[in-house]
Design a protein that fits this description.
elongated; 6 helices; single chain; alpha+beta; four-stranded antiparallel β-sheet
Length: about 260
């Protein structure tokens, strides 16, 4: 009887436990990971759409070229070139003769050493027209003595305005109360005494030369303040008169007041 009672208890215990169910695996977000058989088929990734290439319209391209042309015009001075690499013994007359082959000059400025006043091999040449100035670029590489001259367009100095008051296409009008005159195309060696002798019959209050801050040289022009309107009018009437063999420009000064 004892043996019979033990057998069924053993079977009952084995059937009651059963197999333990495995806990489903979860990802790091806590979501159940499906079994291999339950996973859906991997959908193929859609092909990327072709990139749309934008081609600028012809009108826009033309506009950009125009803007570039305007920027270039703002970089260079109209009708002006720079000649460098000249022998120090070159005279103003020789330089003028070389460039006047292309057309009449408006002005010629020679850069000089501030201590000795000797020519430093650099000249600024202004023509009556920009077209003639462009033709003079053919002189680039021209041999003078034992040196080859370099000729290029003259760039505007940093901070310079495109509309300059130092050189006028047309004479400026006289401002109310103006008693000052602009005098340009001066030689580098012209002094205040020379100008006072030139305008000796007029009443001069003061003379202000324009000086290159970097070199200390004269920039070839000045402003003269007169004591009365009569003196100013007579001075302007002397426009294109020669001083030291060069015709000088005389006009009403332009006010810098805003």
């Amino acid at each position: 009887m004892a043996a019979e009672d033990q057998t069924p208890r053993t079977k009952q215990a084995s059937t009651g436990k059963g197999k333990k169910r495995k806990k489903p695996k979860r990802d790091k977000w806590g979501q159940p990971i499906p079994a291999a058989g339950d996973r859906p088929a991997v959908e193929p990734e859609p092909e990327p759409e072709p990139l749309e290439v934008l081609v600028p319209a012809p009108a826009a391209a033309a506009g950009e070229e125009e803007e570039e042309g305007e920027d270039e015009a703002g970089i260079y001075e109209t009708g002006k070139v720079v000649a460098s690499g000249l022998p120090y013994t070159t005279t103003e007359a020789e330089i003028r003769e070389i460039f006047e082959r292309f057309g009449p000059l408006r002005s010629l400025q020679l850069s000089r050493f501030p201590d000795s006043g000797n020519f430093r091999g650099l000249a600024f040449v202004s023509f009556e027209s920009n077209e003639v100035a462009m033709k003079s670029l053919e002189l680039d590489g021209f041999k003078i003595g034992n040196r080859f001259m370099r000729v290029e367009r003259c760039r505007l100095a940093a901070g310079s305005k495109r509309k300059k008051t130092t050189e006028f296409q047309t004479d400026p009008k006289k401002a109310d109360g103006c008693l000052s005159a602009y005098v340009g195309n001066l030689k580098w060696d012209v002094t205040e005494t020379d100008l006072r002798d030139f305008f000796k019959s007029l009443k001069i209050a003061s003379i202000r030369f324009a000086i290159n801050k970097r070199t200390g040289d004269s920039r070839g022009f000045c402003h003269i303040d007169f004591e009365d309107d009569e003196s100013l009018e007579k001075a302007v009437g002397m426009n294109q008169s020669e001083l030291h063999g060069r015709p000088i420009k005389i006009s009403y000064a332009v006010s810098n007041r805003g």
